[in-house]
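fold-stage: in
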Amino acid sequence: MNMAASPTTPSLKRHGLWLLFTCTAYVAGSFLRPNEARMIDVDESVPTELTRTTVDATEENATTVGGVTSIEDSTTVSSDKVTTSGLTSALLPSGAPTTRQQTRRPLTKEEISELVHTATKSTNPIERRKAFDRLLQEIESDSFTMEQAMITRSAMGENGASGEQWRLFDYAWGANHSQVAVAHVDEIPEQYRKGFLGNMLPGLASADSQMAIELFEGLEPSLQGNLRKRLYEGLIDNNIDSATDYVYNAANPEKHDWRPMDTFARELANEQGLDATLAWAAELPEGSLRGNAWSALYAKWASQEPHAAVQAIVDMPPSADRNQAINGFISSLAGQDPEAAVTWASEISEPGMRESAMVRAGAQFFKQDSEAANAWFQSSDLPETALGKMTPGN
């Protein structure tokens, strides 16, 4: 029996040691487990939630001026979890748009009056700008009312707001509250109606082109002529292609009404630059409206950089575009150098356009130097009837 028991004793000792080790590990693990679990929770949450330290601002540190709440620095610090989208917003550059909109209560009558007074009377240009920017921010809110608009406009009138401030306010009103602004047109006194429409119409067109077109086409023709450029400015801001389509439909080539396309091309050049607008004109369909655009752009080019315009014409092969380029070029040149203008007019290959251009430039030539102009006329191939057109007072 002693012989049989001896191999069992070491085995029991080994099992006993393993049992003791297991119990010890279990007890140690029960103390370590909470910390480990907490570490795992933090690590596993990284893909969807990030832990950051945020600064809490107390109500005592917040001040309100003109409806704008500013928060002073605070030393109260807490740790909170934020979503990935929240962290993304926090990392955006200042002024970048975010999906979260700041909620403000509407400005009161007193606050509007104070802001307008600051925007017009403050000796500090930065304070003036900040105050007026706050008014423009109010117009952009969905809660902006007709009453607020009337209070603002009244205060602007009383405080002598600048023309630029009126332009910006009316533009913003038309762009952000189109129907309300349009409904107010009939309430504007006659002497201020043109100015209000000139300011508001481009803002309206930039936001709702169809409403702007309907308003424009309902105006009397003389007022349309004064406001056409302003309408086009807003339509271009909205969409160049649809604006071009509108001009094509509004123009009347059969009556040789060049004004819509001429005005549109010039305004487009103001907005997009001359090079881009020349490229746009080159893509227009062949015809008189393309010619109107081409002529208007070369007239504008000649007034800004005459030598560059001349070189471009010299480099062009004979074509309808070259004829229109010369036609526009001499329109600008005739007032400055009519002798050069009549010389360029003779370069137009299309007979009817050439004669018209020569007569137009010749009229300026006779006003400046009748003797030299008469000598030029005698050597030209113009008919005798053209002389009466160039010298109607003689």
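fold-stage: in (second)
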Amino acid sequence: MSELYKKSGVDIGEANSLSEKLKLLGADFKNFVGEVSCGSIKILNCCDGIGTKIIPLYSHRFFRTIAIDLVAANLNDMATKCAKAVAFSDYIAVNKLNSASIAEIILELKKVLDEFDCKLLGGETSEMPALLKDGAIDICGFAIGISDGNFMPEKVTDGDVIIGLKSNGIHANGFSLIRKLYSGGKLSLEDYEECLKPSFIYYDCVRKLWENNLIKAAANITGGGILTNLVRVIPENLKPKLDFSLIPKQNIYEKLFKLCGDECYEVFNCGVGFCLVADEKNCDKIFDICKGFEPFVLGKVVKK
């Protein structure tokens, strides 16, 4: 159990308990995106924010990074299905509205979405001094995608390979713990600034994999770490068998493992921002399409 994370204010155990309680609502509450059929088309929807990483990003006026992280959180979820993201809305809540700063965030958000041919439809900005403490801000995004309702990927089977795509450091997860370690003097200013790098957006390359029928499943590695997210896309009679020593080394994780030990695997992506499940015969093609993210075999799917 993540005791350090709990001491920083985030209780993973309680979050897992909530997930168990919501199982009765069906498979959509396990998936990274929900979907509904509309004739021959499936409409997909997902929602995500960037957590407490927005606190340092907003105070440093890193508005483009806020936009990139928000798009990454949602479009990487959308990439777990064979879908095209077509529209996006945002929700911003603040204690006190600063129109210049909020306008700049939204303008940057539109620029990033334009790069992926996804239209920003608008959103909501809410000023709530009675609810949020002085200086507080939060941001959330909602993505809408479409897919061919007839597309059915091959089923994940025993022996399939699990491929990892390298992360750009911390991305936007575990920042309550990162901020606590920094404020307690356990991470240097240089370490902290490294954690503020924008998240990688895997959406384009993963879409190409789906379009070429090269993968069977995909998982966005966000809060909860590698295993918690990966098992969401693997059938219950199977399990992932991973070799964490194969993950490319990153300086920030070398330091976090010294400070947090194996708890890192429950909180952070540990250097793996996205996972793919595929037939081993497709590895070369997958590696070529995703070469910008330094793909590597992380493990295999095996029987329980």
